[in-house]
Amino acid sequence: MTESRMQIEAQATPAIIRAQLAANAPICEQLGAELRQQPPTGIMMIGRGTSDHAGVFAKYLFEVEAHTPVFAAAPSVAGVYDSQLQLNGYLAICISQSGQSPDIVEQAKRAKAGGARLVAIVNVTDSPLAQLADTVLPLHAGPELAVAATKSYLASLSALSQICASWQQDQALKDALNALPEQLEQTQRAPACLHAEQLQDLRHCVVLGRGFGYAIAREIALKLKEVLGIHAEAFSSAEFLHGPVTLVERHLTVFNVHIHDEGSDMHRRQLADIKKRGAHLVQMPATETLHPRLQPLAVMQRFYLDIEHAARQLGLNPDAPPGLKKVTETH
């Protein structure tokens, strides 16, 4: 079976992250020193789609490790409602593969105009977004041709982790990042977690995680929609119990994203309760030996390969989801 672009790009991730970490180390060390000297009041994350989902990971990462509040920008506030936020003392981190979506570029302009320092995590380094930024952190992902983003998302998470490790002078996280490419290669060689027969008749599901597990659940749900046409929603496993849990009475399929960290025991108890109520669980386990902040990257690495393979087995083209294109020009 001929390899798809999605498969080729997902498989390239370990080499990309290995090169990215080396190339960006001086930038991150300088940025980290500046953030220690002048800590931001808060962090605004700017992105759409997969990049917005990377911002959810950033929220947990910087709030847990740097004790700094993080919130997601609403690009319509600037682009539709023409409102200028006051962001003196804030850090704005904008994530974009192309660096050219009009609403994202406009939000970045408004963030700077409001007084924020702008960091661009971007794959295209001569893009309008990169030209605006005070600090540019290249993804070094190379051209991403598959509509469903894979390597750029994982490179975004590794870039955010490298910023955090440098800012907090966290040697354990730095060491874990250096070992990450090899861990991702091992993950690629590991047995599949998802199979076509689990997905062929699936029409609706939810994806549950807690903390850093929820941080990637939204991206998993998006790919189930994009690549397989399955209606999927992501919830925190704690939030799911506040109302939506009634859905499991209809034998709902639940993708269980289990990260081995501080929230592990609580998440396990919540999923046991959900299973008891009648849910069908699909397990998406993390590698327990990995640093807990980097386990989500390994889960996503395996998921991308599994969902691509399942799509082709089901007669779908993972490179060309119906109605989608690579750059979405929202205003």
From TrEMBL:
PANTHER family: AMINOTRANSFERASE-RELATED, GLUCOSAMINE--FRUCTOSE-6-PHOSPHATE AMINOTRANSFERASE, ISOMERIZING. The keyword Magnesium does not apply. Residues 31-182, 195-321 form the SIS domain. CDD domains: SIS_GlmS_GlmD_1, SIS_GlmS_GlmD_2. One of its GO terms (biological process) is carbohydrate derivative metabolic process. InterPro entries: GlmS/AgaS_SIS, GlmS/FrlB_SIS, SIS_dom, SIS_dom_sf. Gene3D superfamilies: Glucose-6-phosphate isomerase like protein, domain 1. It holds the Pfam family SIS. This is Glutamine--fructose-6-phosphate aminotransferase. NCBIfam families: NagB_SO3506. It comes from Pseudidiomarina aquimaris. Keywords: Aminotransferase, Repeat, Transferase. One of its GO terms (molecular function) is transaminase activity.
